[in-house]
Amino acid sequence: MTTTDANDPVRKVLVLNGPNLGRLGKRQPEIYGHTTYADLVGLCEQWGRDLGLDVEVRQTNHEGVLLDWLNQAADDATPVVLNAAAWTHYSLAVYDACAQLTAPLVELHISNPRERPEEFRHTSYVTPHAQHEVVGQGVDGYRQALEHLAGTASD
Ligand code: DQA
User: Fold this and answer.
1) R_g of the chain computed on alpha carbons
2) What's the gap in Å between 7 CA and the centre of ligand 1?
3) How much is the pTM?
């Protein structure tokens, strides 16, 4: 559903980003592109408005902070777009936190970790709990993830 009705409640969506993603635009632009994190926040908010979603974008370099956000999302049944960055590949705590989510979880990566040479990127502790995955689409992947959630919001 890409249109909104005045009577539809605006659905809250959290876009949660893990370590080093605050450095988008500066960090390995040959892999992650030139869009800055500030640009990404603005884009996600605009895409959310276009889709009738109330999008809040957050980033942290501290794993416990991400766990607190996921726990709150579980309590509030808030849909989540999650780019857990490096934690994706080894955090059992992120695995456990994702396991309790009841609203849809979309796993997102700007690059496609499974096609990258480092073996450790080929494992994801998020995938088992994700309803949908968007990988290797650059920053546009966030738009695709929000579109997916807007689609699930129609029923
Ligand atoms: C990433 C891929 C991860 O392997 C990496 O650790 C990141 C970013 C991505 O968005 O492509 O930090 O999640």
Assistant:
1) 15
2) 38
3) 0.93
Burial class, 56, CB count within 10 angstroms (exposed 0-12 / middle 13-18 / buried 19+) = middle
* Residues 76, 29: Cα–Cα separation, whole Å: 35
CA 118 to ligand 1: nearest atom: 4
Q: How many residues does the chain have?
A: 155
- Count CA atoms within 13 Å of residue 63 on its CB side: 12
C-beta 48 within 6 A of ligand 1? no
pLDDT 10s digits, 98-114: 999 999 999 999 999 99
| Token pair of 107 as six digits | 């796993």
Q: Is 34 an active-site residue?
A: no
Sorted by sequence, the CB contacts under 8 Å of residue 83 that are 6+ apart come out as: 15, 16, 17, 18, 21, 107, 108, 109, 110
Q: Is the confidence at residue 137, as pLDDT, over 60?
A: yes
Q: Distance between CA atoms of 5 and 59, rounded to whole angstroms?
A: 31
